[in-house]
Amino acid sequence: VCVELRRRHTFLHKEKALLVKAQRRQRLCTLLPSSGSCYGHYVLYFYDTMFRRCRRFVYGGCGGNANRFRTLRECRRICEEADEADDMMKWRMRPAGY
């Protein structure tokens, strides 16, 4: 019984940690793209919540916000995977019979 309770506690702890991580990523990835206040021309990527995918944009080099990534791969790893994880959590937490 004790071992089973420990496994359940560990599972719930890991699931909560994943949920917190997904919530942090969701806040980051839902920011609107911002080119910043400088006049450089750096092609970066941001996560577009409307289309649920990463897209290119031009960053000026300073200011802006955290929804900017150097590579498409980084954007996808952080935001698209978080979006999929969020969908999975919603599916798993839905009431039975739905």
How would you describe the overall organization of this protein?
With 98 residues, the chain is an alpha+beta fold. The protein has one domain: Pancreatic trypsin inhibitor Kunitz domain (Factor Xa Inhibitor). 50% of the residues lie in helices and 14% in strands. Strand 1 and strand 2 form a beta hairpin. Helix 1 packs across helix 2. It starts with a helix and ends in a 6-residue tail after the last helix.
Any key phrases for this structure?
2 strands, 2 helices, serine protease inhibitor, alpha+beta, 98 residues, TFPI/VKTCI-like, Factor Xa Inhibitor
> On the 0-100 scale, what is the average pLDDT?
82
Q: Write out the strand line-up for the largest beta sheet, numbering strands in chain order.
A: 1-2
CATH superfamily assignment? Pancreatic trypsin inhibitor Kunitz domain
* CATH architecture designation: Irregular
Q: Provide the CATH topology.
A: Factor Xa Inhibitor
Total discrete domains: 1
Largest sheet: 2 strands, antiparallel
Considering DSSP H and I runs of 4 or more, what fraction of the residues is helical? Answer: 40-55%
Strand percentage, roughly? 5-15%
N-to-C terminal Cα separation, in Å? 32 Å
Instruction: Spell out the helices and strands N to C.
Output: HEEH
- Counted by DSSP, the helix tally is 2
Write down how many β-strands occur, each being a DSSP E stretch of 2 or more residues.
2
So what's the oligomer here?
single chain
What shape does the CA trace take?
Answer: elongated
**pLDDT < 50 stretches:** none
Q: Pairing-aware structural class of the strands and helices? A: alpha+beta
Radius of gyration: 18 Å
CATH class: Few Secondary Structures
GO cellular component, one term: extracellular space
Protein name: Putative salivary kunitz domain protein
Keywords: Disulfide bond, Protease inhibitor, Repeat, Secreted, Serine protease inhibitor
Domain BPTI/Kunitz inhibitor: 29-79
